[in-house]
Every structure is written in structure tokens, then in C-alpha cells.
User: What shape does this take?
Amino acid sequence: EDFKPAQVLNSLKWPDDHLAINRKLHFSMAKDDDNVHFEIDSLTGDLYLSKELDYETVSHFLLQVIIKDYSNNPPQNSTVFLSIDVEDKNDHSPYFQDDFVVIGIEENVPVGTLVYTFNAKDGDGTFLNSKIQYSLEMSNVGENPFLIHPLYGTLTTASPLDREITHSVTLRVSAADQAINLTDRRLDSLAVKIVILDINDNSPHFISLPLSYVMEDVEVGFLVHHIIAKDPDEGRNGQVTYHILSGNENKAFVLDKITGLLTTAQPLDHEIQERYSLTVMALDDGSPALSATQVLTIVVLDVNDETPIFLKQLYKTAVHENRDPGEFVIKVEAVDRDAGLNSLLQYEILPGTGYEKFKMNSDSGELVTAASLDRETQEVFSIKGSSCHDLGSPSRSSTAQLYITVLDENDHSPLFAKTQYQISVTEDLEEGSAILELSASDEDDGLNGEVMYSLIDDTHGAFAIDSITGSIVTAKALDRETKSLYTFRAVASDCSTRLPRSTTVSVVVHIEDVNDNDPVFLQNPIRAFVPAKTAVNETVATVRAEDVDLGSNGAIVFNLMTAETVFQIDVNTGAIILREPLTSKDFSTQLLVTASDQGVSPRTATAMVIIFTEEQEEEISFRHSLYEVNVPENSAAGGH
Assistant: This one.
């Protein structure tokens, strides 16, 4: 069909046996034939192509050629039918109906699903020139998820589709004929965009963190967290709303379901609840809807809004005196409901009376002594300023009171008011009479300060002491003339059950005289031999008497019981003095002499003085040779 016009196609020749020289032949084609494509030379019979052939339009021509032979008369006509087959030439390219095709397919179709059938046309007439073979080419880099059948042009899925990975695929589909000569083959191509249609095959997934922090003092409506979930699906399949499923029972938060903004709905308090675990759901709008959940932890951060509180407002304790510094006294404790530094407490003692005696561990709250304590100096410490403060900014603090009692140790001995007691008592005291009230004080407390009294040394049974009152009393009748001075020691002991202490004091008791003894003559009767010629005023005899009493009670004066002119007695010395001459050589007389003491109630004794001259001697004899008398027991001394 690609034969060029004006070229000789063929020549009609008269058969050789019919050839004749000088024959006049005329060639023509019948008018009714579709011979617009052919012409014949009327003289030579050469057949020419006058118009290009198109196999696809007409593939066969049947021409009727009329030959007139003018050699005969009349001319003779002959008819020849000429059959012309037009051979196909690959002069048409395959073509598609459209230049660009957009195809939509859902992403969940199985592998092998028919996507589209391409139908390219080829104007060539013969089989191979018009036989089309399809091929596929991706315009973008990656694995081609589609496959085209080379003969049928069916486009199918070759691998699973995922719109979220690949939204669309642009392909170029080619259609090529199968001309025998490869160089003659022709092709056409078509741009194809395959849009992967979304189905709701993806659940929302959270991209916001599952942890958020918020200060406890934020106002209501404060933005706590922006919850964000993404859904790679399209349209309503990818539209996400937010909902709180659990953890918000006290309605502390409110969640905007569209924006995902979580805000406070009530005031927060770290001390009541320091964290919330909200189960949040992200729900898409697909059908059926898909969802995802996330546990959102909201940590309520502490603000120093709580004041430390001591477990007790008054701490009472006791500590022994005389212990070395560092002795444990008590541990105070406070609680602070805040957290972190806001709840870390520091303890201290505020200045006050006696606070310097103690030291407090600032971290533990343990109170120890800073010096040795003396209960007798100060028994009670009332410290009004045990303070604790947290480490927040600004710091908050509180105080408690400490009441510390110092327990007694037996570190003091009883003390008497004097180092020695000297007293004087009369010897006529009755048995059981109190002569001295001893009092010893002990600064210790309790049994350590309770004093008991006793006597040491021998008092010869004369004295006893009341162990409770310290009163010293006579235990028997006293007699100065027997013992005029008692020296002994009194002991004051405390009642400590462990290592009691005592103090000793010296007691000197002077027995004062009472006129309880009569004068006693050293000789009775007294015989005095006086020469007859003794001169006047000469001492003829001396009486002597003693009185064991003291002082005036023992000072003796002498007197004659009856008035006497011949003799006179010296009241002080007891000397009997001759006042008149003796009248005879055989003179004799008896004088009754009294010896009296000088007590308030004088006591007197009588003696007989027998005075005689040398020539006269009077015999003295008892009236009886035996005297018998009965004396009751327990008779008082000095009784008659």
C-alpha cells in the first residue's frame, strides 16, 4: 500500500500466440469500476497507480479492462478482469481513545483485582501490524503494585495496596503493534494516574506524649495538655475526636473532643492527689469507627502551699542530770504534705531561756544536750520555740513547745546548817526530852533528797535521835556529876536506792548543873583536941565539906546550928575559932555544924564537932550495932 503513484504497477500483455505485428490495441477501464486509484495507458496497457493506496480502506481491487482491437473492422473488444490485492504496510500506530486516564481503586482490594482494561486501536489491517501488545512503566521510583496483561490490556493489582503509604501511582501504559520487522513496529502510550481510594483501615495513633505536668496552683481552665492523635486515613476516616474513658471521676479535667485540648475544670491539690491516670480514646469517624486509647499520666507538681505541722504541739520528756553533752533528749517530728524540697524539713531551737543547753539536729529533729544539766540549778526547761521550716521558696514554718524535766541524780549529800552543834542542857531533864532538832537539807529530789537521821559513836545510852524528824532526845536521866559532856556524831543520809550519800555532823552536849547534891562533910563527926590554954581567936578545928554540884550549887557556907559564944565558925573556910578562953581543963562540948550550898534552893548537911581538952576524951559509939532498912527498887538518886 505504500506504492508510490505514477509508477507502473503492471502491463497488460497480449498473449504471444495472439501477438501480431501492427496490431492497434486500445486499453481502457470500465467506467463503473472504482478505478480512481489506477490508470491504464491506452496504448501500451501499462497500469499506473494514480492515488495512494490504503490497505485499511480498500485491500482488494477488481478492475475490468477493455481492450479494443482496431486491427479488425469492425474493431473487436476483449475484456480482462484484473484482481489487485493491496498488501498491508505497517503505517498506523496503535492509539488510545484518551490521552490521560484517572482510575480510582480502594486500597483493600485483594491482589489480582481488575483495575482497568485498556483497549488500544491500530488502523493496520493485517494481524501482526494491528496486533497490540501492552506494557507498563512507572513514572516514579518504587515497586510497581500493578500488572498489565500484554494481550488483553487488563490492569490488575500485583501487590497489596496501602493508601497511607502510596496515595496514587502514575503509570505509562504503552501499546505496540507486532510488525514482523522490529524496526517497523509502532507504538502509542497513555498516562494513567491510579488514585488509591481510602478505606477506614487505620486506627488513630497518638503522637502526643503520655505524660504531662501541671502546677497545683493553676487556675481553672488552665491548658494542661494538648492531646494529638493522627489517623492516616482520609476524610471522615481520618477525622479524630477525643474522649476521656476513665480516670476523671472527680471531673477535675475537661477535654475538648475536637481540638484535644485538656484543661482543668476544678482546682488541683497535690496533697490530695498528686497524679491522675486518664484513659483517653481517639475515635475516627469512619464506618465502622476505629479507635485507639492512651493512658495519659498527669503529674500535679507541688507548690509550697502547705505549712509543716508538728505531730504534737507540746513535747514532754525527761532527761537525767549530769550526763555528758550529746545525751539524747527527744525527737520532734513534723509532717509537710508538700513534696520535694517543699516537704524537706529543717529543725531548730528558737532562742529562749535555757535553749543554749540543748542542740537540735536540723535534719532528723533529734534534740540532745549541749551541756551537762543540773537539776538543782534548773529542774524544768520550757522552750517555746522548737521550729521547723521547709526548703520551699518562700519557706513555710511552724513551732511547737518543748517541756523538758531534768531527772534527779543523787549528786548532792545532805547538808546540815552547821558543821558542829553545841548545846547545853540541864541534868534534871526527864527521859525523852528533846534537846536538839537537827535539820539537814538535800537538794536532790525524791528518795535522793529524803533525809534519814542516825547517831554514831557511843552516847552511853544517854541520847537517841528520831530518824525522820532529826530530833535528839534523852534516852535516860542525866547526871552531870557522872558525865558532864557528851560528844558524838549525827549522820544525815539520803534514801537513794543506789549509792546513797550522807553527811556527818559533830554534836557536843554540855550537861548543866542542877542543885541535886547535898554538901558532904569529909569527916563526920569531927573530934578536935583543944589544949586548955588555947588562945582566943585561934582556930581549934576545921570542918571540910564537898558539894559535887557546880557554881553556887557547889559553893558551901558553914554555920553553927545553935548560937555559940565560945566558938565561932568561918562561914567560908569552916574554921572553928575560939572566941573565949576555956573555963576548965576538962572542957568538952559538941557543936552542930551545917554545910549549905548556894543554890536557889540550898541544900544542907550537918556534922558534929566534938571539942574537948586533952584531959578529957569522950567516947563515941553507935546506938545500935546493926542497922537494917528496906529500899524500893527504882528509887530516885538522893532519896532518904
Observations:
- The first strand starts at residue 8 and ends at 11.
- The chain is about 0% helix and 45% strand.
- The chain has six domains: 7-85, 94-197, 205-301, 309-407, 415-512, 520-612.
